[in-house]
Structure formats: C-alpha cells, structure tokens
Write a structure and sequence with these properties.
Number of helices of chain A: 6
Strand order of the largest sheet of chain A: 5-4-3-2-67-66-65
Largest sheet of chain A: 7 strands, antiparallel
Radius of gyration of chain B: 26 Å
Strand content of chain B: 35-45%
Helix content of chain B: 10-25%
Number of helices of chain B: 8
Strand content of chain A: 35-45%
Largest interface: A-B, 38 and 41 residues
Oligomer: heterodimer
Number of strands of chain A: 68
Shape of chain A: globular
Shape of chain B: elongated
C-alpha cells in the first residue's frame, strides 16, 4: 500500500529523498502497519486500492443507501445505512475504525424487531428508525440512540428530527397536526412542558448557542394559527422563558446574550435589552460575548467592538472585523470597502491581491492587538493553526502558544497536506469577470497539479475533493482521478451533466453536422453558439450546467466568459460597414451615395434598400426592382414586395400575399422546388442555410438553388469549415445509430471529504451505476429517469475504497 | 388585525396633531433673519405663516400669508414681530419666519425638499411648482397609515387645505413664466462615452447655425417650459378631476395627481407652438391654447419606454393647426419639438442616410444591422440643426432593440437631448 505513495513523497518533499534508505524503509513500514492496523481494528471492511479497483469492486463499494458524517466534531461518528436490507444500520467511529451496530431488543416496553435507519449524530444523539411490534402489530417508528448505539428514546414516534444538543422534536400521526408535536429531553428521557402547563406545541426548534455546554433552543408556539411569543429553553436546566422578539437565528447566543432579529441585544440572565452604542446597527458576535457593531460615518464604515456584559466599547474605527477563533478575531484598521479573506479547513483560497490597501491583524477579547495589522488573507487550518498572508510574507500563529507568528517568504507547512498546497488563479475574462481555477503547488511553489478545477479542497491524507467541468470527484496526490474523471469528449460530458442536473431537456437540441448532413455530434446540447475563435464553439446542457468551449475534436474546457441570454447585456460596439453604398434621401426622395456622401444615383426613388456593396432594391410608382450602382435595373420595378433572403438571394412577390419568385443578385431567376422563408448568408463556401416556408424546416442550398442538405432541421446555422451547428427536428430524426464516445462507468452526484473522520463519501446517482457503462449510444441521455436510489461509497483518506465484508457485517434477525 | 379603539389609530391621530402644529408654524427656520428696524419692509420666509392676534403661540390666527409676502415691520418684541400686510391686516408673526429681502429660488438650497417645494411656488409660480407643493403636502399631511388606507380602499382621502387653496388661487390669476427660470440652460455636449456608441462617420460635423442657446429648443418640454419658450403666461383654468387610485399587472399601486388635483386644464397665453417633422421634410405647426396637466407617479415598468418621446405629464387640449404648414399623421412623425424661433415650412431639408452596420456581440458573434441617420436643417443654411440616429442593438431577450438618439446643434456643439433604447422585456 505504501508503494504508490513513495514517488509522490520523493517528488514533492525533496528533503525526504535525502534521508537514508533505512529511513524511507521505516516510513513505508510504518504506513503499512498503520493501514493493517485499521484493517484489523475494523473487520467489517475490505480496503481496495481505488486506482486498481475493478468495476465490480467499485460497484461493491457503493454499498450504502445513505451515510452521514457528524459535523463539527473532533471525533466524528459516521451513520451507515446499508443498501442490503438484511444488514443493520451501524455507527462507524472515523477516528478508531470501530463499528457499532444499532441493536434490536425490548426498549422501555417497545419491542424493536429490526433497526432500519440511522440519522446524523449531533455530537450526542441521533434519530433512529426501527421495525417494532406494538399490540401484536408491526410498524415502523422513530426513536433516538446515543453515541454508543444505545436506545435512549424507544422508537415509537412517526417523525423525529435531528436533535439539538439534548433536545429533539418528534411527532405522532400526520405532520400537519400540531398538537402531536413534542420536544423531548433526550438526557432525562422526558417531554418538555411550557410553564403554564399547556401541551407543548412547538413550531420551531433552533439552536442558538454555539457551545454544547451552554445551548439554548427557541420554541415558537402556535395557537389558533398565529405565532405566539417565542420561548427560550435553557438546555442545561430545561427552564423556559419568553423572549421579547424572535432571535436572529443565524447570529445566535453568545456570552449569555442573544441578538434579536430587530438587532437588539437581549440579556438572558436579567431578561433585559442591552443598549448598544448609538446609531450602531447589525450587531454580530465576533467572539463569545463580544459583538461587532457597524456604523456609517460620512459614507465610511466605522466598526466598533462592543462587550454587552460590561457595556464597554473595546475598539473603534475599524474598517472590518471578522470572527476567526473563540479567542481571536480579525481586525482591520486600513482599507475602505474591502474585507479580509477568511478560509477555514477545506474552504478554497481566494486570489491574493498584492495591491490591496487592506491591513488586518488579530485582536483578543479585550480589544488588544495580538498580531499587528498587516495581512489580508487568513486561514484556519484543520489542525487549528492560523496562517496569515500579506504581499511580502506568510506567517503562522499557534493560537495556543504564547509566542508570536513565525514568518517566511514561503507558504508555511501548515498549508500543506500530502506535500501539496491548494492554490488558485483568477484570470479575468474579456468582460472583467474573474474565473477562479484551482491547482496544487509543492513546497518549492512549483505547480504540480495544474489549474484546472472549478472547485477543490486541500488534501486530506492522500486524497482531495475536486470538481472539473461540473464533474465532482476525488484525486490522489499525483493528480490521478480515483473516481470517474470528466469524459474527454463533449457529448458524454454534456449527457452526464444533464443526467446530474435538474432541468428541462431540450426539445430541438443542438448538434454538429457535416456537409453530408450527418450528425458528427448528436443533438444533445440545449444551447450552442459559434464564437469568434476559429474551430471553437460553446455548448451547454440544461439546468445549471456550465457553458463549455469545445474544439473540433470534441475536447471541452470551461467557457472563458459567463454567457447568458438574459444577463449582463451591454450595448455592443456598432461599426459602419466599410466601402458600402448608402441609401440616401433628401426630404424623402431616395438615391444612392458612396460612403462619403457622393451621389452615385441621384435621388429619384420612393425608397431604396441596399442589399450588398453593389446592389440595392429601389421602389418607383410601378413597384420594387433591383438596381446596380449606376441605377440600371437588373430586375424591373414590377413587384409589390421584395425580401432580401441573404447576401445572394432575394424573393420578389407580385402582390403582398401573391406569388413570389426568387432571384440571385444578378437578377437571374432561381428555380426552387419550394418557396423560401429565410436564409443565412452564403459565406465563402457558397453554402447557405435556408428555411422552407411550407414546413418551416431548414436545409442548405448552393448558389444555384440546389439543396445540398434537404430541409430537415428546426434551425440550421452557417458552415464553419467542415461542420455546422443545427437543431434537430425531434419528430423527424433517427440518430440512435450514431456511435458515440463512451462516458463514465457511473455518475457521481456529490462527493464530501471529512478529514477528521478520515473518510470521503461518494454518492452515485440513481440508475446510473451500470446502465451508463453498458449503453453507448446517445439514447442514454434519458438514463437519469431510471429507477433506483442513491448509493454511497466510502473511501478512506489513503485512497482506498472501503468495501463492506458482508459475511462479517451484523445482520438483522 | 387592527380594531377600532386599538392603539394604532390613536398614534396616527397624535402624529397628525404634531404634524399640524408644525404645519401651522410653516417653517423650520432656526435663526432670526431680520435686522431691520421698525418701519422697514420685511418679507415672509415661511411657507404659509400665521398672523396672530397677539404675540403668543396660542393667540387666534387672523390671517395666513405665503412666502415672499411683503410686509411693513411695525415693532419687534423679542421673538415676535408686529407687522402690517396686504389689506392693512395687522398682527404678530414669529420673527424667525421673516427676512430682510425676498427669497429667491437659489436661497432654498439646503432646505428639506418638502419645505423648499412649498416656498418655491410662491417665489416663481408655475404648474410644476404647484404640483410639487401638492406632493409636499401629501408627504407632510398624510400619515403612513392614511396613505396605506388609501391604497387598501382604492380611494384617495384628501381635503381642502388652505395653503393649497391659496396656491390654486394664485395660479388661477396667471403666472408669467421666464425662460431663464423654467428651462435648464446647461449645455449637454456629447460625452466621449456616448460618442463611442455612435459609429464613426454617422454624426456630421456641427457648425453654429439656428440655435445659439439651449433655451431656444425643447424636445419634450414640461408645460411650463413650453409656455416659457415665448415668455408666456400660464393660467389654471379648472380642475378636471380629483386624484385617482391606479394599479397595474406588476401589483404596483399608486394614487395619481397632486394633493386634491388629479387632472387640471391650464391656458397658455400666448399659445405655445409645437412643431412636428416627418422624414419627408414636411413640417407641421400647432398652436396650443390650453393643455390638460397631471402630476404624480405614472405607470412604469418594462415596455413603458416610448421611442417617440412624450409629454410626461401633459397633453394639448385646445390646439389648432397653423395655416401654411403640413398635416403629419402620427405614424410619420420623426420628431416633435418646441422652439423660440419660427420655423418656416419651406426652410426644412432632411437628408436621410441608411447605413448598414456590423456589430460584434459580447460572445464574439458578428451580426449585421442598420443605422438610419436623419440630418435636419431647419433654416436652409446647409448646416444640420438636429440629427436623429435610429439604430438596432442586439437584445438579451428580443433579437434586436431599437435605439433612438437625438442631437441638437447648440452654437456649433452637438448636445445629446434624447437617448433611449427599447426595454428588453419578456
């Protein structure tokens, strides 16, 4: 297992290469022991190297109906619900690898026949569903289990929500009957009552306190359909007290005070409103018991740091302030209308602006500068190190140590995992929009995995979570995809994007045809555009799929600009065509001039409409005709109506609704089998897309009026080189036989990476596991509609699929 | 749900009382502005001040006088001035509401908009300032609850207010409008940014010709501007209707008009002359003797942009075609305008050029379009006085949007007087 890791370590960390061969061997041996230890600790999984796993092994890895990782916990538990109904839900301890099944048996008089489902842990408890026997009848019901898998509330409720600290909301019967809602105290294993003894009818249950040791809940009770005053439930004592108004749920409780939705601060102990500094607004907790309050002074933001408990202002005249840890916050005293970049854990970095005027440092709970103000970017790493970046240096601060920051010109070790640091580049496109792309650098600042991902995480162990061209997945430290990479060809790429994305499939989709009218790329694109760059076009699927720029061989990259039919409309640059003849009138009498205004044909017509550099339509009392630049009639004026079809053809009609004839611009009549309604220019290739009036379908004509490709498209676009965009007429097309490039063996819906649980969760979309691998023609675009539930696989952070060993997994009775 | 006797209407009544007290005082002046001795002339600086029987705030009001009423200062006693005014009325006014000289429009800068509007009418009476006074009274007199109730019941609730009645009476007597006071004289030379949107070669060279000042030409004037073009008088003839409730498909609701006027008819003496021009060079001229005027919010929303422009808040009521001029159907109208000059019908020459254009869109696609340039010479000196450029730009939703820009040659410099692109609506 260690063998694939060694080259990467040598490449990315040259210092290791200078160690003795004995040292390398010891390191490899250590890794082997660690991996073996995990396998021994947990006999329920068989690790399979992701890069060498066979198809069946991969499918075997996709074993769970659902899996949830406890968030914000230093020793997170993973709730696993196997897809095999014979196996029971179990709790995986991510840090030790131990597995605890949810037990059956008799709990508080309830006979639990079979555990069925385990919800996410909140640090203490998780909801769990089981098949129970009650009064000789079997039914499914919800209860709660603790971290050791023991039932603390027997399963007897029809609904159960994720608990908040030790509190949980449950319900009986139909969800719409409010009287059946209860709040349970999971620790005391009782239901909570309101002070007046009424039946508790809680409408909302929101965690307000950030700390589990002092957690508060708000319960807004509803009577007669109207919202009554909200209540606080003290998580420590169970005491209930009224609140003057609804709290600002996202800003919560801190230091015994609550920020209310109307920006007032409420003190829980005294039940009073605390006065904030005058004219301040938008208070937000920045440390426990310390709030920032924003003021606008002469169009300049003045931020004050306020301690409600003592009603003192700790700092003034800050330009920005952001929370960072429980003891330090970021304070900025220079720079207008700019905010520091703050990234935690797996959050992506943001491009560094060396010209930024922003200067920030770190302040403590007394308003004292702990780190002087000179930085713009702040990172709080998974191991709680603070990394700060300015234009000239990177600095690392251990917030638990008394020492100051350690600085260097190079990125510090805290930013590296697997020898790699996540980096970002943000090139601006022609519209000034920044398109962030992520890649990875080694400790020598060498870009070892190029900028190519729209989203990416720092490495955890030997894997990182990335997204490229809309495809989520996991890569190893060599940049290899451990999950299916984005298909190389645009057709399967867009089809897979459509299968992943909610949205309406296109009716008359865009595709690419050759000069024989054959589909080179089948019509699978919702939108497509030709662009100025040669041999390039933009396509996109439906829903939230991105625009892709595609070259002639079908290779796609993200389109460099955000294009939309409805957004960012700016008036484009308009230019007069050079060397043109100009229809010119004096008091409504028309003639022809050159671009400089010199008369070519003196004004004599009722109207003139220029068709090309040498031809114009002119109207006299007898009707419309075609003239050249000397005013000679190429088509005598006898038509009621002329319609310029394109740069080479025009249609002339004897009456408004009468018979029409088609002419070229030399005045020669063209015999067409059907009347045309519209045409695109002939272009340099002498081929024009043209629309037939009777069927409204488009085909391609030559200059002699012969169909090179018969009309059968909803819309056809000009040829560029050998190919042209066309929109299929769905009812007419039979293109299922068109061979297509192969796509991915299965489609990933989402990927999450949990460094503390040492796991990644990979969720595969329903119905796509096998189907995509088997069917290769374009008809698999409908595969997302197939039946089936999502399946989730586990991968450890060494890049191994964890395949359940069914023979060892606890089975239900 | 509000119920009779609940606290909300009571609060509303209190608020109204406070506002009425302020309204009676009619001013927010902080400092005393008179230095004159008894016997000198002073002017009212408040908007509609109370003349009281005695030098007390609670003394009976014997008269109310508007801004710039000229008074004779009889005596001064602390904060109170004894004065004698029109009709030999004598009484007491708070000295802080008086000044040593008449107020000018420029003196109102710095006042809050409602206070400024209520004084401005009396300094320079016009329909626009009457409308602004009514709007200010709406702001001051109606509580938020009353305004909400108007929308809920679809029924404006307005009453006769002495100050506004006095305003109406003043305009019924006729107001002489001054060009300099009514028409913005600031030139608007075409900015480089606006010029960059016009294809090179489309806008001809400007040389000094018919119009020397901006006050000589108006494209979409207010009724005051149209009347002022010839130094005319505007007179309120009658109130046609009161304010009305409106709503539209976007769920916008509003009450039109200004205080208790929805629409009114005003006379313009001498009549304003509105010119209309067709691309064929035909010129129409209509004398407008009276107009229907309105005020307040109008329906907006996507699609409300009018490429032909329009009189925002008035329309002719009594008009007559002038002899010797053409009649132009509305669909052939190229541009309408007012001018201090008399434009002769045989002096107009329009040169129209129909250019083909090429446009590169944001996504790099090139599309062809058209640009029509009408150069209008109004005095046959071969120098264009007005240029109208009508073009197409690709839309976001619509394939193409029409644009119309009108440039006026003011003393040899192009002034961009109209620049509108159709709304891009679904």
């Amino acid at each position: 297992m260690s063998a694939p890791l060694e080259p990467a370590r040598r490449r990315h960390r040259p210092c290791l290469a200078r160690r003795s061969a004995l040292g390398v061997s010891m390191l490899a041996a250590g890794l082997l022991v660690a991996a073996a230890a995990q396998a021994q600790i947990n006999p329920y999984f068989s690790p399979v190297p992701a890069t060498s796993a066979t198809e069946s092994q991969r499918q075997g890895a996709l074993f769970f109906r659902s899996a949830y990782v406890e968030d914000h916990s230093t020793a997170p538990l993973v709730s696993l619900n196997p897809a095999d109904p014979k196996l029971v839900p179990a709790i995986l301890d991510g840090s030790t690898g131990s597995l605890t099944p949810v037990p059956a048996g008799t709990i508080d008089g309830v006979q639990v026949l079979r555990p069925l489902e385990l919800g996410v842990f909140n640090g203490r408890f998780a909801a769990a569903k089981a098949l129970i026997r009650e009064s000789s009848k079997e039914r499914e019901a919800w209860g709660y289990v603790d971290r050791r898998g023991r039932w603390v509330i027997a399963p007897r409720y029809d609904r159960a929500e994720t608990p908040v600290n030790r509190w949980a909301k449950v319900g009986m019967g139909e969800a719409r009957y409010l009287q059946n809602r209860l709040i349970l105290d999971l620790e005391r294993r009782t239901a909570v009552e309101l002070p007046d003894g009424r039946a508790p009818r809680y409408d909302a249950l929101v965690p307000l306190g950030p700390h589990l040791a002092f957690s508060l809940l708000v319960a807004g009770a509803k009577d007669d359909g109207s919202l009554s005053k909200p209540f606080l439930v003290n998580a420590m004592t169970g005491a209930v007290m009224p609140l003057p108004s609804l709290p600002a749920a996202t800003r919560g409780e801190s230091g015994g005070q609550i920020i209310l939705g109307d920006n007032r601060i409420f003190d829980i102990a005294s039940g009073r409103i605390i006065s904030t500094p005058s004219a301040g607004f938008l208070p937000n907790w920045i440390l426990p018991g310390v709030a920032k309050i924003q003021n606008q002074v002469d169009n300049r933001l003045d931020i004050q740091i306020f301690k409600p408990a003592t009603q003192t202002v700790l700092a003034r005249n800050l330009r920005a302030a952001e929370p960072l840890t429980s003891e330090l916050f970021i304070a900025c005293d220079q720079g207008e209308n700019a905010w520091p970049v703050v990234r935690r854990g797996q959050q992506e970095p943001y491009p560094f602006d060396p010209d930024s005027k922003l200067r920030c440092g770190l302040m403590d709970a007394e308003g004292r500068w702990r780190v002087a103000s000179r930085y713009q970017h702040f990172y709080l790493t998974e191991n709680a190190q603070i990394v700060m970046r300015s234009a000239s240096e990177w600095c690392t601060l251990d917030p638990r140590a008394a020492s100051g920051p350690v600085c260097s010109e190079k990125a510090p070790a805290a930013m590296f995992n697997a020898g790699l640091r996540l980096d970002v580049e943000g090139p601006a496109d022609s519209q000034g929009n920044s398109v962030h792309m992520y890649g990875y650098r080694d400790s020598d600042n060498k870009l070892v995995i190029p900028y190519q991902f729209e989203r990416a995480s720092p490495f955890a162990g030997q894997i990182a979570r990335v997204s490229k061209l809309g495809v989520q997945g996991l890569i190893d430290a060599q940049g290899r995809w451990l999950t299916p990479p984005p298909p190389k060809h645009v057709v399967p790429l867009v089809l897979e994007g459509n299968a992943r994305s909610p949205g309406t499939p296109c009716e008359s989709c865009f595709g690419l045809i050759d000069r024989a009218g054959r589909w080179v790329w089948p019509p699978v694109f919702n939108l497509a555009r030709l662009v100025a760059a040669p041999d390039r076009l933009w396509v996109r699927g439906h829903g939230d799929n991105p625009w892709l720029e595609v070259n002639a061989s079908g290779q796609a990259q993200r389109a460099p600009v955000s294009v939309s039919n409805h957004e960012g409309h700016t008036e484009p640059s308009v230019q007069l065509l050079p060397n043109q003849i100009v229809a010119t009138a004096v008091n409504g009498v028309w003639g022809l001039t050159d671009a400089q205004g010199n008369w070519l044909v003196a004004p004599r017509y009722a109207a003139v409409d220029v068709l090309s550099d040498a031809r114009a339509l002119a109207r006299t009392k007898d009707g419309w005709g075609l003239i050249d630049t000397k005013g000679s009639w190429l088509i005598p004026p006898r038509f009621a109506r002329f319609e310029a079809l394109n740069d080479g053809l025009t249609t002339a009609c004897a009456a408004q609704e009468g018979q029409c004839e088609t002419f070229n611009l030399d005045g020669v009549k063209i015999d067409l089998p059907e009347e045309l309604a519209a045409a695109e220019p002939f272009g340099t290739q002498g081929i024009a897309a043209a629309q037939v009036r009777s069927s409204s379908l488009w085909g391609y004509l030559d200059r002699n009026g012969r169909w090179l490709i018969e009309p059968r498209f909803t819309k056809a676009y000009p040829f560029s080189g050998k190919f042209a965009l066309a929109q299929a007429n769905r009812s007419e097309e039979d293109i299922t036989s068109t061979p297509q490039p192969r796509g991915s063996p299965y489609l990933i819906g989402r990927v999450s990476l949990w460094p503390r649980a040492k796991l990644a969760l990979v969720t595969v979309l329903p119905g796509t596991t096998v189907k995509l691998a088997q069917e290769r023609d374009w008809s698999w675009k409908s595969s997302s509609a197939t039946t089936g539930n999502e399946l989730t696989g586990l991968m450890d952070i060494q890049g191994q699929w964890l395949v359940p060993v069914k023979s060892r997994w606890p089975a239900s009775r | 749900m509000r119920t009779p006797g609940s606290s909300v209407p009571l609060f509303g009544a209190r608020a109204l009382l406070v506002v009425m007290l302020l309204y009676g005082a009619g001013s927010l002046h902080a400092a005393d502005r008179i230095s004159g001795t008894p016997g000198s002339t002073v002017w009212v600086h408040g908007s509609f001040v109370n003349l009281r029987q005695a030098a007390r705030n609670d003394a009976p009001v014997v008269e109310q006088w508007p801004t710039n009423t000229q008074l004779h200062l009889v005596a001064r006693n602390g904060e109170w001035c004894e004065v004698e005014g029109p009709g030999s009325r004598r009484g007491f006014i708070a000295c802080r509401l008086l000044g040593d000289k008449a107020l000018a429009l420029a003196d109102l800068a710095g006042l809050n908009p409602n206070d400024a509007a209520r004084r401005a009418f009396w300094i320079a009476p016009s329909w626009g300032r009457l409308a602004a006074t009514g709007q200010a009274l709406t702001e001051v007199l109606l509580t938020a609850g009353q305004r909400e109730a108007e929308l809920q019941t679809n029924r404006p609730a307005r009453w006769a207010v002495p100050e506004f009645e006095a305003v109406k009476a003043r305009l019924r007597a006729g107001a002489q409008l001054q060009v300099e006071q009514e028409i913005d004289q600031t030139n608007r030379p075409v900015s480089p940014e606006a010029l960059s949107r016009i294809p090179a070669g489309a806008l001809p060279q400007a040389v000094p010709s018919l119009f020397r000042k901006r006050t000589e030409f108006a494209l979409i004037p207010s009724v005051d501007e149209a009347a002022a073009m010839r130094g005319g008088t505007l007179r309120l003839l009658r109130i046609l209707r009161g304010p009305e409730y409106h709503s539209n498909r976007n769920d916008d609701q509003w009450i039109d008009g200004t205080w208790d006027i929805g629409e009114a008819e005003v006379a313009i003496e001498p009549p304003a002359v509105a010119y209309k021009l067709a691309a064929s060079g035909l010129l129409a001229a209509n004398s407008i003797n009276s107009a229907v005027v309105s005020a307040g919010p109008a329906e907006g929303g996507c699609g409300s942009v009018d490429l032909n422009g329009r009189y925002a808040a008035w329309r002719p009521r009594l008009e007559a075609a002038q002899p010797g001029y053409a009649r132009i159907p509305s669909d052939q109208e190229l541009v309408g305008f007012f001018s201090v000059h008399i434009i002769r019908p045989d002096a107009v020459q329009i040169t129209t050029r129909d250019f083909r254009t090429s446009t590169v869109q944001a996504d790099g696609q090139r599309v062809n379009g058209k640009l029509v340039v009408h150069a209008v010479d109004l005095n046959k000196d071969k120098a264009p006085d007005v240029v109208i450029i009508i073009g197409q730009v690709p839309g976001g939703i619509s394939p193409f949007l029409m644009t119309k820009r009108i440039f006026v040659n003011i003393g040899g410099t192009w002034s961009l007087e109209f620049d509108v692109t159709e709304d891009d609506c679904t």
